[in-house]
Each structure stands twice: as structure tokens, then as C-alpha cells.
Amino acid sequence: MKEQNILFGQVSRREFLGTAATAAAFSALPLTCLGIPAPGAVALAKPNSKFNGVQIGTITYSFRNLDPGIEGVLKACVEANCSSIELMSNGIEDWCGAPKAAARGRGPGPGGAPPGAPGATPPGAATADARGAAAQGARGEMPPRGGGRQSLTPEQQAAQDKYNAEIKAWRLAAPMDKFAQLKKMFSDAGVGIHIVKWSPARWSDEEIDYAFKTAKALGANAVSEELSLDAAKKLGPIAEKHGMVIAFHNHMQFAAAGFENDVLKPALAVSRAVKMNFDIGHFQGSTGRHPNEIINQYKDRIFSLHLKDKTGPKTTPPNTNQVWGQGETPLVEVLLKVRDEKLPYYCDIELEYPIAAWSTSVKEVRTCVSFARQILI
């Protein structure tokens, strides 16, 4: 596919990648060389990815090939110069002292292979189903049956049922101070948490209350979930009760006939607390339409954007993740619209393209941050 000749001010993509490569090289240096202190040292610098009023951030999923622990996610954010994150559930409850799920082999559920381990989905190759299963596994939930996944043995099912009861009891009694401490750890490092991706649509109402309470304790304004009308009907009123937002993420749904009238508009009508966690790459890659169409139509019903670059539905290969600047997603036009219209959206890098053997997810996210900065300054 022919590379797009995108200009950022007076800087071409070729020139930009030269400067970005330099930035990426810095990210390989020890943390102390970047102004990030060793444990116990006084902080010299903090990440800053807010450019001309536009908050660029990332999502935990971008670092799925690294240590999935909370400390690892925070370290990756700081190294990548990301001062904001959509924090996925992976590791939150472990850090806060929740009971751990029993191991059950190398499947995608509880106790399965962590991201990047043998048997896990390789970076850049995760499907929506795999991502959902990974998130469920992090929460100790059973993924849906089917799709080639092995059924549990009676012993495994008994262990799973025992864990489900234990984690629910823990959640309903969990003190908020541990979540406040976790917020402080991120805040002290210069990273804000704006969304927590609990994906709680299949939880009990009491646990959904817990999801919003803990998200608020973590400093977030929203909980995120995958988009469906049923989920909006269940979660919208509870989000409104907590004075928060339930932000729904899209994959390829916009390409389905009647989706906007049959699902999206009824979902948004449930409550003003229902908003979109709008993935511009999935939208453009599956429909070929410009994401600014949706931004114009639903401007005040969008909480955040997911940023990625993809080919369009008529390109070969279609709807495929690309290194930023090599695909067809109009990242420049979208980011300039957010900047020029002062839209209050969090704009989050969701790194999904395959990572070269000589690079890392941290280097790639840092390069994407630099890419966005070059557009916005």
C-alpha cells in the first residue's frame, strides 16, 4: 500500500519518523536518564502528553506484551510520556488485596497465560473476542463458552464458582482507601486515570455499584464497556446515580445495517450518562466513513476517542492495523478538530499494529505521542 504523504506543519512523515526514532531511542535509556527517579529518589520530571489543550493518553491494552501488573503499567506510561490512561481492570484488584482466582491452565480465563506469555495472543493480533476474554480473565470471570475454548472440568468449575463467590463478597466489602492509594501512586508519577474499563455489564447490581465507586476513588469520571443496547439499559441508570459516565466502546458495529438507529441512538437515549468511547480506527476501517461525521452528529455524547491507524474496507488488506501515518484513518483531521473546537475528549492511543522485533510497545506508544504532539502544537 502506498504511504500517505501527510504533512505536520512543515514536517513530512519521513522527517517526523526521524525525530520520532530519536525520541524512541531516548525511551530505551535507564529511567534515571529520562528524569524518572529510581525507587526512593526525588522525582525530577513527570510525563506530559497534553498539547494545546488536547489530552493524549493511552489504554492498558497498549502494553499487553509487558508485565501486566499495575506497577508495570505505570512504569510504561511514564517511559512513554503518557500523562493519562484508560486503566483496564488487569491487576487493579490484585493490587488492592482481592482474592486470587485459581489457575486453570493456558486458556484465556483466570490463571491463564498473561499477555505476551506462551499461549497468549501475540501483540497486534488480538481480536475483540480475545480482548474481551482477557478482560474477563483479569476479573476472574468465565468467558463465554464456544469459540474453540475448552470447557471446565467439574473440579475447575467448582473452583471457579468458589472464586466468584469470594470475589463478590470482597468487592461488596472492599474499603475505598486502597483504590485511593492506587490513584495517588499514579498521580504522584504524573499519570491521571480518566476511565476504568471494568466492563461490568454481566455483574450483579451491587458489583456494578462497586465498579463506579472504585472508578471514582481512582480519580476516573467514567467506566467503560463494550457497546450494546442491553448493556446501556443496565448500566446507564446506575452511572447516572453515581454522577458518572458509562462510556461504550465500538468495534465494527457501525458497518452493520441499521446499527445507528436500532442500537446506538436507543442506547444514548437511555440516559445522558451514556456516552461513547469512540474508536475512530475501528469506525473508519470497517465503514470507510470519516470519523468526523460521527463527532459532528454526536458531539456532546462522546467522552473519549481511541486512536489508531487502519486501512479502509476497500483496501487490500482491508480494515488492518497500520503503523501511524501509513494507514487511511484521518488522525490529523480528527485531532485538529478536537483542538480547534476545544472538544473535551480524552484522546487515547490504542496500540494495535504489530510491533517490530527491534522495538517495544513503550517505544511505539512514545512515538505515537510524539506523532500527536507534532500535529497539535
Characterize the structure shown.
The chain is α/β, with parallel strands linked by helices and 377 residues long. It has two domains: 14-98 and 176-376, TIM Barrel (Alpha-Beta Barrel); 104-145 and 152-173, no CATH class. The chain has 13 helices and 13 strands. The chain has helices at 13-27, 70-79, 92-95, 128-138, 154-173, 177-188, 205-217, 229-241, 259-270, 280-287, 291-297, 331-340, 361-376, and strands at 7-8, 11-12, 50-51, 54-59, 84-88, 192-197, 222-226, 245-249, 274-279, 302-307, 309-310, 321-322, 346-349. An eight-stranded parallel β-barrel has the order 4-5-6-7-8-9-10-13, surrounded by seven helices. A two-stranded antiparallel ribbon has the order 1-2. Strands 11-12 form a two-stranded antiparallel ribbon. The longest helix is centred in the middle third of the chain and has 20 residues, at 154-173. It is globular.
